[in-house]
Amino acid sequence: MTTGSLDFPVQLRPPERRFGLSLPVDRTEPSSDHELMLAVRGGELDALGELFERHQRPLLGFLVNLTGDRTAAEDIAQTVFQRMLKYRHTYRDDGSFTAWMYHLARRCAADHYRKSSSQPAAVDPAELSEHADEGPTAPERAAHGEDREILRRALACLGPDEREVLLLSRFQELSFAQVAGVLECSVGAARVRAHRALAELRRHFLKLQKGACP
Fold first, then answer.
1. How far apart are CA 154 and CA 158, in angstroms?
2. Does residue 3 fall inside a structural domain?
3. Residue 85 belongs to domain spanning
4. By C-alpha distance, which of 172, 190, 192 is closest to 181?
């Protein structure tokens, strides 16, 4: 059973409009995410617009599948880019922009639900199906449409913590070192959590495949 990274057609408001930034400057060669974030940290705030264009869709996909609430996910995604700008001086030189972004996303999601005194909703399999990315680079794309749909439904059966570690390691394709940084745990603990979550996903997948829908 396989799947792909998640993305969505919803277009967030570009940070150059939301934060009063100018449009990204023309570059003869594409800069890496790390280089762009270093530029933002150094005061070249227009570089955040390019980072937004690169990462808005997978970030929103992660948040929708983490929270089960598309409206909340859109709000949280906007907050993530706000915090990138506000806390740009905390970005480190280790080159792990993606891990830093998902770390912020996780914190923003927690803050969102703390303020609203609510909890993430159970993921609707229809939402997963509607917004899944069919890109060929993700490690676990299903070979057939039927299996892919079963996989999405199985993912919806997982708890928030299990979904989180799988979304990071399997869908967003972060290394276990990066996942550990996002979850603030050891690499070994991240591996164990991912292994257990994947085993649970397989259990639900097999149940659904046999028609024993939870």
1. 7
2. no
3. 15-209
4. 190
Please enumerate in sequence order all residues whose Cβ is within 8 A of that of 27, keeping only pairs 6 or more positions apart, or say none.
Answer: none
> Which token pair is 163?
């979904």
177-212 tens-digit pLDDT: 999 989 989 999 999 999 999 999 999 999 988 875
In a domain, 181, yes or no: yes
Query: For the whole prediction, is pTM greater than 0.85?
Result: no
Q: Calculate helix-pair angle for 97-116, 47-67, nearest 10 degrees.
A: 50
Any idea what the CATH number is for the domain that residue 82 is in? 1.20.140.160
Total domains in the chain come to: 1
